[in-house]
Amino acid sequence: MSRVALLLALACAAAIAGWTFHQSAEDRKTDDSPGTATSAPQSSTETPSPTPAPAPVHVDYTEGPASPDGIGKFFHGREISQVMGHPAIGWLERGEREQEEAPSKAIAAIDLKPGDVIADIGAGSGYYSFRISPKIPQGKVVAVDIQPEMLNFLKEKSAELGISNVQPHLGKIDDLMLPEASLDAALMVDAYHEFSHPREMLASLHKALKPGGRIFLLEFRGEDPRVPIKPLHKMTEAQARLELESAGFEFVSNLRPLPWQHFMIFRRP
Q1: What residue numbers bound the domain in which 179 lies?
Q2: Model pTM?
Q3: Is it the case that residue 54 has pLDDT exceeding 90?
């Protein structure tokens, strides 16, 4: 082959190789590079399917020997504790409560709109009810309790404090006795573990909450041996989630702002 022919052959080969490399790079850009017209994800007008709500599960109660602080009735393996009655109002209203439990932090974390209706279930002396009421000046706190003595105390204190948006309400051991979809939120402070009929109460609460309504559940931390509360009057997060999720509620979060208690938030789907 002459030198001229050899040079022409090499030039053609280089041109072909360069064209091939260019095509390969373009192919890679089309397949892999973000921001190109062909690789950009196509927008969709379809609404993502929501996560299916947990379906309520019927769980039977079981019975066994009662512990010193229990009633011998079990729900999801947890023994239900004895009820702290109205003679304990002094303990609920004790001056050390802020230092020990920091309820002001809990109340600050309860996010409500001015016109919301919230049920304080197991309201007792109304310690939380009266402190929440200023957050909802156009709404109300339905202070639910099964003990008339507690409700009488609430009525007297409402008059003493001049608070008109705390409504004492007599419930039953297995029913809140509240209208369907009447609540924006519910609060249970160290009370749920004492419910003698938690399955029925959770079903009643599910009915009374509006869709999207929240539950603020405060319980002394059962995982923490440093919390100086009797074991049956404490709950673990895992146990609380088991019971409420089985009743059809969604777990949202555990804020953990308090020295002794869980601050768990659940939602009705």
Answers
A1: 63-267
A2: 0.79
A3: no
